[in-house]
Design goal:
218 residues; mainly alpha; globular; 74% helix; single chain
């Protein structure tokens, strides 16, 4: 694909689609749209000559990375809990306390239905497809993180944007270091699950899971 078409594709996928969703007059479930766009990314990866498909899993990298992942997570989880406790104590553990069945559903479904597709789109596909647009190790990491954070405008709150920018840098760094989407996704899932658990879930769910939870509550 020539550079102009590559730029157009990038703008459509990572700028226009989030903006269209954010300002749509209809409240649509987010996950099916994520899967649709990720399906396109997967199709393009399958057509890319020389693409290393082991990057879509590469479980061998998880074990060596776990000590670092868990150490950073321990610090991050503590800071997030302290922030909720100090600035929004009414939110502390609210999903666990008020809707434990939905919380359990999120813990099981979130890594598979949300984290992994995001990893394909914002790390594997992004790094493979746009290396010529964002040359250099840190340029690519920052670009990936910005795109990842930008899509969270759909949740219409600054907390989601700020946290996903930091998370986006961390997850992109992990992917760049390991070449393993599984490893990056495990780290992503840990933080996401903790956000829902500690009380910040309302900043991050929209559509499908919320709808399922409302049905289960009836």
């Amino acid at each position: 694909m020539n550079r102009t078409l590559l730029i157009v594709e990038f703008v459509v996928l990572y700028v226009a689609c989030p903006l269209a969703y954010r300002y749509s007059p209809w409240r649509l479930p987010a996950l099916p749209l994520l899967w649709l766009i990720t399906g396109y990314a997967g199709w393009q990866l399958g057509r890319t000559p020389g693409f290393d498909r082991t990057r879509l899993w590469n479980a061998a990298q998880l074990g060596p990375s776990l000590p670092s992942i868990l150490a950073w997570f321990a610090v991050g989880a503590l800071l997030l809990w302290l922030a909720v406790r100090v600035f929004a104590p009414q939110l502390q553990w609210n999903l666990v306390r008020e809707r434990p069945v939905l919380w359990g559903l999120v813990m099981v479904a979130y890594p598979v239905l949300s984290v992994y597709p995001q990893g394909v789109l914002y790390r594997v596909f992004f790094f493979e497809r746009y290396a010529t647009l964002f040359p250099g190790h840190w340029t690519m990491i920052v670009a990936s993180a910005l795109a990842f954070a930008f899509v969270h405008i759909i949740f219409r709150n600054p907390v989601a944007l700020g946290l996903t920018l930091v998370g986006g840098v961390l997850f992109a760094m992990r992917y760049a270091e390991t070449g393993s989407l599984l490893t990056s996704s495990v780290e992503h899932a840990l933080y996401g699950a903790w956000l829902f658990t500690v009380g910040l879930g309302a900043c991050f769910y929209h559509g499908t899971l919320a709808t399922v939870g409302s049905v289960m509550r009836r």
